[in-house]
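As a warm-up, study this chain.
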Amino acid sequence: MIIKRITNTHRDFLTLTRELDVELKGIYGSLQAVYDKHNVLDPIDTAIVGYENAEPMACGCFKKIDTERVEIKRLYVKPNFRRKGFSSEVLHTLEAWAAELGYAAALLETGKKQPEAIGLYRKFGYQTIANYGPYLGMENSLCMQKHLP
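Now compare it with the structure written out below.
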């Protein structure tokens, strides 16, 4: 996989995140509408897309929360590319970029019906924390944090 740093307005990033939205709606049904408003990001410069043979097949981004922390968002790998380590590579790339920019911790939110995502984050050392920000009071949300090297 070749990973390119792009903005979250890049067409390949937008195409992949639309696919992610369809998948999440399939998992959560009408409940996903509550979360959709949290997945609309202001334009940010810290997004990536992974390519396999020039095909966009994975993405992710992070946004600044404060001077110390970022939030990992929109991590996605197309279904036919899963179980090959690409999600680990995307997550590692995002964490390394955030650390390069001087951030000390990464936070994220995932849904409780996404065991593969939860497993990935735990494998990378993320610990469950109390729900934060827009996820306060959302029973389906699982929030996690990791201190970056």
